[in-house]
């Protein structure tokens, strides 16, 4: 246990990775620490939350946050992004267009879920769509660690990105393709029949011994991901053949 991280509300996962479960929507923010830079995964739901994440991440690591990865485009995962000016933003192919043209829908969704209207409007107005778009896999060198970004969707949405971090134990940031604190949510933008295949991709990249970090809830293992895959396949009528 890293007491300094724990006291700040963060969970240290491996020597290079950590995460925080944010309040209200229990959304996971991921953190990968390089020798001279840091990557934040899903920077929160508003500028206030994003600014707090940035300050905490930089204080805990002694590194500037230089990279942001969006696992998908839902408000609780992206609207903190504007607090990270100067960072390089990454997302699955097509997420840039979705965040550019769907701003009113994004704002409305945030407000419907309880974000204050002024905070939602500010965050949407200042939101930076990802400049770097991942169609297959993309490797980021953070100094001392090479992080793999993988376009594993569609599934939970049409633009699902996972983040794989090697180390003494590999960590896999799954976004909302995997949820532990409740049943996976399939909204109007989900692609249900391809969701089980996206989990197969996660398992093939992460392996049996990886830590799987869901978008909401506690860290899980490969057995949990396989069980959730089977549940989703049955729920959506996807053949196991």
Q: Biggest sheet, strands in spatial order?
A: 1-2-3-4-5-6-7
Structural class determined from secondary elements: alpha/beta
Strand element count? 12
Estimated share of beta-strand residues: 25-35%
Distance from first to last alpha carbon: 43 Å
Mean of residue pLDDT values: 96
Helical content class: 25-40%
Silhouette: globular
Order of helices and strands: HEEEEHEHEHHHEEEEEHEH
Describe the structure.
Strand 5, helix 3 (75-78) and strand 6 (88-92) form a beta-alpha-beta unit. This protein has a seven-stranded mixed beta sheet with strand order 1-2-3-4-5-6-7. A five-stranded mixed beta sheet has the order 8-9-10-11-12, with helices on one face. Helix content is 32%, strand content 25%. The model has no long low-confidence stretch (mean pLDDT 96). The protein has 241 residues and is α/β, with parallel strands linked by helices. Helix 5 (103-112) runs antiparallel to helix 6 and helix 7 packs antiparallel against helix 8 (222-236). The chain starts with a helix and ends in a 5-residue tail after the last helix. It has helices at residues 3-7, 47-61, 75-78, 95-101, 103-112, 117-126, 195-206, 222-236, and strands spanning 11-12, 17-21, 28-33, 38-41, 65-69, 88-92, 132-134, 137-141, 146-151, 161-165, 171-179, 211-216. The longest helix has 15 residues, at 47-61.
